[in-house]
Each structure stands twice: as C-alpha cells, then as structure tokens.
Amino acid sequence: MPIVPSRSDRDPTTLDEVPFQELRATLRGELILPADARYDQARKVWNGMIDRHPAAIARCTGAADVIQAVKFARRAKLPLAIRGGGHNVAGHAVCDGGLVIDLSRLKAIRVDSARQVARAEPGVVWGEFDRETQAFGLATTGGLVSTTGIAGFTLGGGIGWLMRQYGLTCDNLLSADVVTADGELVTASATENTDLFWGLRGGGGNFGVVTSFEYQLHPVGPVLGGLVLHSIEKARDFLRWYREVAAIAPDALTTLGVFATAPPAPFVPVQYQGTLMVGAVMAYIGDFADGEAAVRPLRSFGPPAVDFVGPMPYTTLQTLFDTAAPAGMQSYWKSADLDRLDDASIDVIVEHAIRTPIGLSAVHLHHLGGAVGRVGLSETAYPHRQAAFTLNIVGLWPDPAENARNIGWVRAFFDAVQPHTRGAYVNFLGDEGEDRVRTAYGPNYERLVALKTTYDPTNLFQVNQNIRPNN
Fold it and tell me: How far apart are the first and last CA of the chain?
C-alpha cells in the first residue's frame, strides 16, 4: 500500500480541489504551485531517482508559517512531506499530490560559546553549521557530507566523525521546538515534554515539525584525518586487520571501512586512479601525538597503496565525502547493523563488494562503539547501541538506464549479507516497508507507537519511515 495517493488519485494541477488561496493568505513565505516557473526546481531533492509532484510547496519563513501549513494540510486531508536539507535517500522531503512544508530557507544559527551550545533552524546543512561553530573552536557530531541537512540527520540518530568521542547527534540534542499535528508549538527537552524529547532522538519526523534545534557543542580543533587505500586483492586480509584495529581503537578515533573507486586525485598513484580499492577513512579528535599513535596500526598494514592522512581543519574533514555524493545522481541503498565483523561476514562482504560498479557506488562500514554504546538502549529512540558496525551498501550512478543493473547489485549484496546482520539505521533506509521500520527501532518500536498515538493519532506525518499510530 503506498504511503501517499498517486498523482492520478489527486491531481496537483487542479487548484479548485483544495483552496490553496486560503493557505497563501496565511503565509509570510512563498506558496509554489505546479504552474509556477520555480516548481520543477523546488520539487527536486538530492536523490535524482525521486520524481514526485506535490500539489503545493510552502516555503516557510518561521514557526508561524509552519503552524499554518500543518493546520491547512490537516483540514484539507492532504499528504504532508517535510523538507529540511532534502538529502534523504528515500526522498521523503517531497510527496505526490500533497503539500510540502519546505524549511530550506530557515537558516538561522546562534552559537553561545560560553555555554558551548548552538541553536539552529531546520534548513541549515552541516557545512553551514560547522562554519559557525568552528569560528569558536566548537562542534557537535554532524553528517559525513556537508550538504546534508541537520534536521532529518539529527532526528534519525546521527552517525558522524565525533560519535565515538561525543555520541550520536541525537545524544547531543538539548531541546527542540516542535509544531505538533494539532498545530501547537511546544518545546521538548529533558525537563519539558520529556516523552516527546525521547522520541525525537532517533524517531525521525513522526511526531511533528521541528523548527529549532539546540545542541551541545564540544571543543574541536584541527583533527588528524584522511584515508588509506589498498588494492582490491588485499580486501579480505585488510578487513581482518581492520577488525582487530577497530576493537582496540580509543574513543577519540572514529573509522570507516570502505570499498570505493579511487578518485583522480594527486595523492592517488596514477595506476590506481579509477580502480576499485579497499581501505579506511579515519579521524582522530585530540592531541596529534596521541592521534599518530592511534592511527599507526591502520597505516601499518600493507604498506598502503594510498596513505593520505594528516592534520586538517575539522571543516575539511566534514567535506571529504562531498565529491562522492553529488546531488542529482540515481541513488539506491541498503543497510544493516553488524554485531561483529567475523570471518563469515567478511567473506560475504568481500565477495559482493569486489563487484561494486566503478564510479561513485561504494560500501561503507561505520565503526560504532565508544560513546555511542554507553547510552542505554531505551534512553533514546535510537536503539542499536551495542552494534559494532553499520554496513551501508551505497548505489550511486548518473544514468537511469543503468538502474536495473545497479539496484540488482545492491539487492543481491544485501540479501547475501542479511543473515549476518541485525537492526538497521533509519537514516540509511529507503522505502522498504513497515517490517524494516520495525527492525530499525527494535525493542523501542512499541513505545514509539504509543508516542505516535498520543502526538499524531491520524498519522498526519506519514511521509517518512513511518510509525503507524495504534488506532
């Protein structure tokens, strides 16, 4: 059953069906309709595979606009999508035949350096957030691509380079202002609406529209970061080595195992450029001398064909993956958690990863643990605190004519590795159905259903990794 009506069920070009003039009159921001010259650009999202046609797009300028748009969608019984950065692989920032609440113009960021706290609006992307906080030598766990929006990333958990030292992004959320399904603006924190605050930390956009996020910041200066790469023939041996190094890594070191096509970069020998390689990306947060000792084991295997590791600004670290994830590509992912990287799972991963299509497609092994695992399973909605790794099979290619081949590779890989996995990271899910959403929330799912039933009993907020209310 589709989440939202198809375009044929609700023709977005028929303006008489819903009195959009009423909504336009209540907004300080813009209302973009299908006849508008800006419409096609406004409905685009990061994943070029997504081609949806909303009935209207409300570009909000503040919480008041969001309140009016939520109330309007509820009265009109319209499908409702919420757009922050628009970077979600499932394309949930846009819907067919409904209303998009576009928050991309809400860009305010305020840093309180004395309290080491930042407040930011939901249209902010991580590159913008990092620029402001780094002016004070501060940061919080953020996305691996600087164009990713802070909103969806935070609400789904938030895996990033600071996580083993300072926790997931949702662990650093101090409070949020939220427009609920009944159009009320409330604050959720450890002391106000605590049940809602629990659900926002990993439960996605199921409970309302966040119009302001307040984050705990941490001192973060230049970091020791970069990558090592090896020829693909060493893949199995390298992953076994990587497993042992990850097991003893200090919290200040976060690593990412990768299979990827080597770029035509000056630090890559010519004979490896454009070839599939295996390796690890790394970031050490802290003293460089300690960092050199911490990353030495990863650099000692081989020796590497590529060793590009050194001091860099945190903002540079945060953009390392930008060229590998451009907007407009066809994108299809599958993801799951691993409790361990044993020989059997390594064999399956290598068998399928060596077939990764040359280009931007890649395989990522996010090393968790550290501060991520010191939060209790039920302390936040994000439940998979004891997982060792999150595996993400990233299909990314330019030509829609190649969809069947690339999607087939991702699916075959996932089907083969699934017996070795459990759980899933909600931010990496595509449209995979209710069972996968249940898998993503595990033992916290029923509590999330109860919370959804309280805050959104009619399931107004359903264009997401949806948790259905119990009614």
Answer: 18
Q: In the prediction, which pLDDT does 2 show? A: 34
Nearest to 445 by CA among 468, 461, 425: 468
Clarify whether residues 273 and 197 are in a common domain: no
Residue 183's nearest CA partner among 456, 469, 463 is 456
Which parts of the chain sit beneath pLDDT 70?
Answer: 1-18
Tell me, what DSSP letter sits at residue 101? E
- 204 shares its domain with 232: no
Q: What is the pLDDT of residue 14?
A: 46
Q: In the chain, how many domains are there?
A: 3
How many angstroms separate the CA atoms of 426 and 35, rounded?
35
Q: Based on the fold, state whether residues 185 and 40 are members of the same structural domain.
A: no
Whole-angstrom distance, CA of residue 91 vs CA of residue 329 = 12
- Domain residues for the domain of 279 are 223-428
Q: Which residues of 62-91 are buried (b: 16+ CB within 10 A; e: fewer)?
A: bbbbbbbbbbbbeebebbbbbbbbbbbbbb
Assigned domain for 10 exists: no
Q: Is residue 433 part of a domain?
A: no
* pLDDT value for 18: 56
188's tokens: 């959720």
Judge whether 156 lies within some domain. Answer: yes
Whole-structure pTM value? 0.95
Beta bridge partners of 230: 278
Judgement on whether residues 250 and 359 belong to the same structural domain of the protein? yes
Q: Residue 11: what residue type?
A: D
Q: How far apart are CA 44 and CA 53, in angstroms?
A: 9
Rg (CA), the chain: 22
Round to whole Å and give the CA distance between 282 and 165.
13
CATH number at residue 299: 3.40.462.20
* Residue 390 identity: T
Query: 291-329: per-residue pLDDT in tens?
Result: 999 999 999 999 999 999 999 999 999 999 999 999 999
What stretch of H or E contains 410? Answer: helix 403-417
Residue 437 domain flag: no
193-217 burial, b for 16+ CB within 10 Å, e for fewer?
A: beebbbbbbbbbbbbbbbbbbbbbb
| CA-CA-CA-CA torsion sign (170, 173, 179, 182) | positive
> Which one, of 138, 286, 144, 301, lies nearest residue 224 by Cα?
286
Are 239 and 253 found together in one domain? yes
Q: How is residue 149 annotated by DSSP? A: B
Question: How do beta strands 209-216 and 362-367 pair?
Answer: unpaired
CATH code: domain of residue 156 = 3.30.465.10
Are the CB atoms for 123 and 149 separated by under 8 Å? yes
